[in-house]
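Incident review: delayed structure delivery

Summary: a single-chain prediction request sat in the queue longer than the usual turnaround. Root cause was a stuck worker, restarted by the on-call engineer. No data loss occurred. The affected request and its eventual output are reproduced below so the record is complete for anyone auditing the incident later.

Affected input:
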Amino acid sequence: MELKNLRPVTGGDGQKLYIETYGCQMNVGDTEIVVSIMQGEGFVHTERIDEADVILINTCSVRDNAEQRVWGRLQEFRRHKKRAGVLVGVIGCMAERLREELMERERIVDVVVGPDSYRDLPNLVRTAAEGARGVNVQLSREETYAEISPVRLDKNGVSAFIAIMRGCNNFCSYCVVPFTRGRERSRSPETIVREARELFDAGYREVTLLGQNVNSYSHDSDSGGHSGDFPELLRMVAEISPLLRVRFATSHPKDFSDKLLETMAAMPNICRCIHLPAQSGSTRMLTVMNRRYTREWYLERAAAVRRLMPDCALTTDIIAGFCGERPEDHADTLSLMREAAFDFAYMFKYSERPGTKAADEMDDDVAEDVKTARLSEIIALQNELSLAGNRLDIGRRFEVLVEGVSKRDTDRLFGRTSQNKVVVFPRGTLKTGDYATVEITDCSSATLHARVV
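Output delivered after worker restart:
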């Protein structure tokens, strides 16, 4: 199937579209698909909400805090509804999960569209403009938006996301994603490689391949095209050019193979950073979470990373205070963090998500103050680990892809190493999109400071 930008046709009549995005990188990619679809129907994207005819908010349901931010933002949209003809739409995971509540509680919401129904969005907006509400939250087993070329909304023109698959089959007991994004389905390798090549030809120098579990990527061609698994797809994208950096997220530990590590080790332009969510260091808690691996399995996979790629960074996700978590389970998490020596972590308190197994069958029985205390310990430990890891980089040289100007000092630029660590260094004659070799001179737990070699 050939990638293409949708051709403008009548329908939007030049109406201006504003869209806000919350949540994960997949949502960022979905927003770019939505803008492409809407532009193909005659709508014009704007970054100014006060001039928009259609206001969309692309939502996340992974944590309660993300949903509360959306509810609050919808209240702020009320003042824009005072302008004649302005339509407000909620799209994405929250639209899928809370469609009835959105329609009943928020009378300003005109359109509600789930992640698999974006092709129908222009029609639903037209329906709403005629006075009815536009709703489509039908999940699909086939939709991948493979032939739609996203409209890139990033500011630097250097890094871009490519969704290689949609949905999830894992059904972790705390997670709402399988219910809001449906079951797994993968795009064909040809469309993914073509999109990556188009990005490289347009001046992008880094792509991140996205999936809820990239290790599950699988495409069996019945039309003479290429078939393969994720390591093979990763190799194909990396072979576009040695000047194209390739990243990916996210890997599930239960499916994390040596074949993937060997592919990475053989290709220098596949970045040396692996995000491998642990969630807990306790085998008992991992069983309750339905993660389908043990503490020992996870640590063996982490050891394999260090063995095959000693220069590879390892990052993770941690949940504090999941249902039934005991002090000894929390202690196991802290010890796993120390043993794995994570370079970075996303760390959260558990928040119950309605519709999940944990919400339906388990007691959220860890007190809020205990969750907070455990999360504080986890954060403090990770800050120590990040600082210790960064200190080991002082005196070392790295190739950095320049991404832009430092927010704190316009005479300095920032970029990232292959290990996904942020580096700040003097501007000199460098510009965004250049590669530079730098030597690390100092660090904090979050940033490396360097001189250009």
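Verification: Residues 5 and 58 are 21 Å apart (CA to CA).
Action items: add queue-age alerting; document worker restart procedure.
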